[in-house]
Amino acid sequence: MASRSLWLLAAVMGLMGCAAPAPDTSRPDPFQINQLQQLLPADAILLGEQHDAPEHQRIHRLTVEALAAQHTLAVLALEMASQGQSTETLGADANEDQVRAALAWDNAGWPWTAYGPVVMAAVRAGVPVVGANLPRARLREAMTDSGFDRLLSGPALKAQQQQVRAGHCELLPESQISSMTRIQIARDVAMAQTVLKRAVAGKTVLLLAGGAHVDRSLGVAQHLPPGFKVKAVLLLAEQAPHAIEKIANFDQVWFTQPVPPVDYCANFAAQRATKAAEPVSGKTP
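User: That's the sequence. What structure does it adopt?
Assistant: Structure tokens below.
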């Protein structure tokens, strides 16, 4: 069991690296193993991803397998499923349909082909998988709750608002920035609540979420109590100079191969133009 655990840890770290050739992961590399081991012990590890980077989902799976092999994984918590959804009533032999049903999986938003392997790795290891995100039914309430404005410091709130602007390609009306920022903060709060609720002494909760959610200066960690030992890791599939600015907000940054660029802003602009062109009334002339 120990040798398998070491091999899995080496495999996780073997996926890291940018221009360097992939290392030989057929046997453990003590240096690579140490990079992941440096995060332990931890009450929680927040592992941030770029959602369209398949390599990140592979790293997630290998991390789950490695921690489960060490018997240190308390629970796998997901941004990709809502609070209240859980596989706890399922056995390790549950099939994928049963797991998707238990998590009320939204395949349109989170393709099962990408996230199924990491979820099933936890299930097969007997580790509960739980939803951590804010349920859709609570989104509208969060948008109008000014209490979320006071959960971050002034500079952090402004930075979060700017991320919302940038994330929506600077196309959102300024009147919508506050409400959309509240949703982002509410999601971070929900994930923090889930992490705290699922914490187990001597083990680690692993949260998988987008990189912005695990940013120590703005995200989930802001809503965890002092003394709760949390480590934030960013998986970064880019080599742009501005990426260096992000490193200070994480305990570790694992660089991966860049993914082919997609002009999401062009797509977003096209969607908004189409919606604006639709008739106001749903009635036919």
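The beta strands are 44-49, 73-82, 129-133, 204-210, 230-236, 252-255.
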